[in-house]
């Protein structure tokens, strides 16, 4: 394979169909981007331009992708899992999962779609200020299926939280009914209506002022971990909304590290892990 003036050229190694061949030759190129190149007639085989995904190619033929150095393509967000049905990224803190009334552009799904990765549909969400695993479906029907059976197909949701203070109990469980005020502040109700939220935690390490905590949630309520850590007396660092204070971490100390589920199409066990962001560690003991 070679790149000339922005064009990408390679020789077909075995007989097959064009889209499948491009995917094999350029494994880092998202399938949506490859389809987009075909749809916009940017691909030719031995000089013949085609937009057909199933265009037959033979060993020895030359494929050229015009004005697109796709061999060096990089996603705007780190892709941590992808197959023909699903795609998962390691979302950075500060980025919305999907659009809101106030913010339409700076979202994870918009960045991915604008880069040519489409069709793409959000399966679940994580808070703007939380980093980590964010999962998408490549078709709407599968997205609907997953959302309707989310609690059944998901077997593990693990987070890493950096909390203020030292926990007296190093391992525990918090259950409550969560409500939300008109100003979008979530809190635990002592009685009456609310959404059941269950949070399990275990302190992994600590210093004199902060604790590094593994959190497993049985439910995925809005702001659940943040509310429960506050109520335990150990708000997450940087979480001004729920009682936390600024620290040398310079962000919300919450990262969605692991998502385990049954693959909605194959039924196989799927484990998706998001590496910790650079610098995501216990703040220094001194203020």
Tell me what portion of residues adopts beta-strand conformation. 25-35%
Q: Look up the CATH topology of the largest domain.
A: Pseudouridine synthase
Q: Mind telling me which CATH architecture of the largest domain this is? A: 2-Layer Sandwich
H/E series: EEEHHEEEEEEHEEHHEEEEEHEE
Number of strands: 18
Runs in which pLDDT lies below 50 for 5 or more consecutive residues are: none
How far is the N terminus from the C terminus? 54 Å
Anisotropy-based shape: elongated
Helix fraction by DSSP (H/I, runs of at least 4): 10-25%
Level-1 CATH class name of the largest domain: Alpha Beta
Class computed from helices, strands and strand pairing: alpha+beta
CATH superfamily of the largest domain: Pseudouridine synthase
Biggest sheet layout: 11 strands, mixed
Query: What is the radius of gyration?
Result: 23 Å
How would you sum up this structure, described in words?
The chain is α+β, with helices and mostly antiparallel strands and 287 residues long. The protein has 2 domains: 2-72, Structural Genomics Hypothetical 15.5 Kd Protein In mrcA-pckA Intergenic Region, Chain A, CATH 3.10.290; 79-273, Pseudouridine synthase, CATH 3.30.2350. The chain is 16% helix and 34% strand. It has helices at 18-25, 31-39, 108-114, 140-148, 150-153, 224-231, and strands at 2-4, 7-11, 16-17, 43-45, 48-49, 56-57, 62-65, 79-82, 86-91, 121-122, 131-137, 154-164, 171-180, 186-189, 195-206, 210-217, 254-262, 269-273. A hairpin with a 6-residue loop joins strand 17 (254-262) and strand 18. The protein is elongated. It starts with a strand and ends in a 14-residue tail after the last strand. 32% of the residues are buried.
């Amino acid at each position: 394979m070679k790149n000339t003036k922005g064009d990408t050229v390679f020789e077909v190694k075995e007989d097959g169909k064009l889209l499948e061949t491009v995917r094999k030759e350029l494994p880092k190129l998202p399938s949506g981007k490859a389809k987009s190149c075909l749809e916009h007639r940017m691909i030719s085989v031995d000089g013949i331009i085609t937009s057909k995904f199933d265009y037959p190619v033979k060993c020895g033929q030359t494929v050229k992708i015009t004005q697109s150095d796709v061999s060096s393509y990089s996603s705007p967000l780190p892709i941590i899992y992808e197959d023909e049905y699903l795609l998962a990224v390691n979302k950075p803190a500060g980025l919305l999962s999907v659009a809101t009334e106030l913010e339409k552009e700076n979202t994870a799904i918009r960045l991915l779609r604008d880069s040519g990765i489409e069709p793409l549909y959000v399966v679940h969400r994580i808070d703007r200020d939380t980093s980590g695993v964010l999962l998408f479906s490549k078709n709407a029907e599968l997205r609907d299926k997953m959302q309707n059976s989310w609690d059944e197909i998901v077997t593990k949701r693990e987070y890493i939280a950096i909390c203020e203070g030292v926990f007296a109990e190093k391992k525990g469980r918090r259950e409550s009914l969560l409500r939300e005020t008109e100003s979008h502040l979530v809190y635990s109700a002592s009685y009456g209506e609310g959404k059941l939220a269950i949070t399990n935690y275990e302190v992994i390490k600590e210093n004199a002022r902060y604790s590094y905590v593994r959190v497993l949630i049985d439910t995925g309520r809005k702001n659940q971990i943040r509310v429960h850590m506050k109520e335990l007396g150990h708000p997450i660092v940087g979480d001004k909304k729920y009682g936390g204070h600024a620290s040398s971490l310079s962000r919300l100390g919450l990262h969605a590290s692991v998502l385990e589920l049954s693959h909605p199409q194959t039924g196989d066990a799927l484990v998706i892990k998001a590496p910790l962001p650079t610098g995501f560690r216990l703040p220094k003991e001194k203020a």
